[in-house]
Amino acid sequence: MDVLIKWLSASYGTFQIVFFRSVFGLVPLSVLVASSGGIGLLRTSRPGGHVLRSLVGASALVCFFFAFKHMPLADVYAIHFAGPLFLTALSGPMLGEHVGWRRWSAVGVGFIGVVVMLRPGSGMFTPVALVPLLGAVFYAFAMIFVRKLSRTETNAAIVCYFTLTGVAVGAIGMIADWRTPDLAGFGLLAAVGILGGIAQIMMTQAFRSAPAAVLAPFEYSAMIWAVLFGYLVFADVPTSAVIVGALIVSASGLYILHRETRRPPRPVTETTGEAVAP
Prior knowledge:
By secondary structure, the chain is an all-alpha fold. The protein is 74% helix and 0% strand. Helix 2 (14-36) packs across helix 9 and helix 10 packs antiparallel against helix 12. The radius of gyration is 18 Å and the shape is globular. Its main location: membrane.
């Protein structure tokens, strides 16, 4: 999906891609809702919570899609890995979860990795490079709100209202930058949404079926695919600073997840830290 987004960004605006990602993301979601109990899954008693979570999640989408247009895939992915670090830092004040000194130390080391990637004083430290970092912050806030909503709301409701918000944000934002797609462009834009919707459902199911610590290595393996596709499709080669920084951030994130597995188990909810944000 991200390869297609970067490819399409040469011809279409960020908000237009967000719009199509969200509209066609409703297709697999509709199939899931229809096969899992119908429209009743979307009932909610917390519309305000959904609005807040959805706006933050849509902001993360816009940041990452914009970054894909201007930066190599691997660079965006590496900075995105800071999301779990921000999530850990926010979980104490916003969720009342205890964060011990070991995890705070891991967060600190992870931020050193982010600094290594951004390389203050070099060409990488630009406003564009800060956009995916801001996206990682939005992602962390979105996951905080997801954790809160998951106590009473279904996965289908959380994903549906987020996706509908993406449709609205994309529709408003693309008014000034609309370009009518040709048949091939329309097909690729539709593919972005369908692939994203399917991935959302698969990752949500994965996080319901296995501990986050088990799944984390697979999630961090996205860096491998970003480097591979970035090189094969766009001839991008990550710098040594990005690779080193990504390794530091990934190691910090994996250690935090390792510490999570040593905590007393929390009540099981329908949604944990799944990718219902971007």
